[in-house]
Design goal:
The chain has helices spanning about 5-15, 55-60, 90-95, and strands spanning about 20-25, 30-35, 40, 45-50, 65-70, 80-90, 115-125, 135. The chain is α+β, with helices and mostly antiparallel strands.
Length: about 140
């Protein structure tokens, strides 16, 4: 699969999945949790509270892993994503990603505890239940 075709397939999977599993490293051990997933192209965004363990873990070790897409069927489109994350306090980005769902945890897009993890993939495996995984490298 050509890279452009593969990128289009990856974006379709990202569009179709609003939740992902997000793994960080705490000390020497992996730690995984479910998070709401946003993306622009192949750049991923996760909204969180700056006072959470995951923010501290990203500060200590920016290497993260994201799993997207399994719906219980053999034909599931699945992404395994190796990436690095940074904590963004960019107001324009926070406003752009703000949804009413986040109001359960924050007092609006300018709440100082509301931050965005900006995740840049370096390696992705796309699997669709047929054949070998397709590999994308950044």
């Amino acid at each position: 699969m050509k890279n452009k075709q593969l990128e289009e397939q990856i974006e379709k999977v990202l569009d179709a999945n609003k939740i992902c599993s997000f793994a960080t490293v705490e000390g020497t051990k992996p730690k995984v949790r479910y998070m709401a997933l946003f993306h622009e192209g192949l750049t991923l965004f996760l909204a969180t509270n700056r006072k959470t363990d995951k923010v501290d873990e990203v500060k200590d070790n920016p290497n993260v892993h994201i799993l997207v897409g399994y719906d219980g069927k053999k034909s599931s489109d699945i992404l395994q994503i190796q990436a690095t994350a940074v904590i963004s306090k960019d107001n324009a980005l926070r406003e752009k990603l703000w949804t009413d769902d986040l109001a359960k945890w924050f007092d609006g897009a300018h709440d100082p505890d509301y931050v965005v993890l900006e995740v840049t993939p370096s390696y992705m495996e796309y699997m669709n239940g047929e054949g070998q995984p397709q590999v994308w490298k950044g």
